[in-house]
């Protein structure tokens, strides 16, 4: 019987999360509980300040827009919606498109300078 996939216990040498994940490269911590069992968890991810991220374009929110479709159109990958959240200082993706007419910053991830 095969072991079910657990992203917090990857096979040796494999990345925990894919490169397009906001958690790619995040450290894994191990806590030993009172019964001696190891409990693995992700360390906290600190959201970068939106002003520190390099803008590459802007997107005007239209009625019916979704964070994933905006990310697909502007960044080439719908799973990069989190990058839009970081660049606009929001915690919840639905905040990005809640107000039609809002202008969103499309940014690069933290640590990558503007071209």
Describe this structure in words.
With 115 residues, the chain is α+β, with helices and mostly antiparallel strands. The protein folds into 2 domains: 1-45, no CATH class; 50-107, Membrane-bound Lytic Murein Transglycosylase D, Chain A. The chain is 15% helix and 18% strand. The protein contains 2 helices and 4 strands, in the order βββααβ. The chain has a two-stranded antiparallel ribbon with strand order 1-2. Strands 3-4 form a two-stranded antiparallel sheet. The longest helix has 9 residues, at 67-75. The chain starts with 27 loop residues before the first strand and ends in an 8-residue tail after the last strand. The mean pLDDT is 86.
């Amino acid at each position: 019987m095969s072991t079910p996939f657990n992203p917090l216990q990857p096979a040796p040498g494999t990345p925990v999360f894919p490169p397009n994940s906001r958690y790619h490269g995040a450290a894994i911590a191990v806590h030993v509980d009172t019964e001696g069992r190891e409990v693995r968890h992700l360390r906290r991810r600190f959201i970068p300040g939106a002003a520190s991220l390099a803008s590459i374009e802007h997107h005007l929110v239209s009625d019916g827009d979704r964070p994933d479709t905006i990310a697909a159109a502007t960044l080439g990958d719908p799973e990069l919606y989190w990058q839009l959240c970081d660049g606009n200082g929001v915690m919840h993706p639905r905040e990005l498109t809640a107000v039609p007419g809002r202008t969103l910053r499309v940014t690069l991830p933290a640590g990558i300078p503007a071209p």
